[in-house]
User: Which sequence fits this backbone?
């Protein structure tokens, strides 16, 4: 059995990452938004001239639809989902 490393962290989100779920009248923080931000910053910090090599490395961490690679190695769970002092743009 593979032992997984667990990292517990508390974050304050300062960029737009909210989307509606089943209840379209209520904003919520969703795992795909967090994973998308992590993927963006991983790409930004891991420059590679050859885009194929970059995609291969990224896919091994974040997953791919390629059956040889499969799902992401990163599992994210939102345990506290509350909005404090948010405002909508005019």
Assistant:
């Amino acid at each position: 059995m593979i032992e997984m490393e667990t990292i517990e962290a508390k974050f304050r989100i300062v960029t737009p990452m909210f989307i509606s779920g089943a209840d379209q009248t209520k904003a919520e923080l969703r795992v795909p938004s967090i994973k998308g931000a992590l993927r963006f910053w991983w790409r930004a910090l891991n420059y590679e001239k050859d885009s194929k090599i970059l995609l291969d490395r990224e896919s091994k961490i974040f997953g791919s639809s390629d059956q040889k690679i499969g799902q992401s190695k990163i599992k994210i769970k939102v345990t506290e989902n509350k909005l404090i002092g948010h405002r909508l743009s005019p």
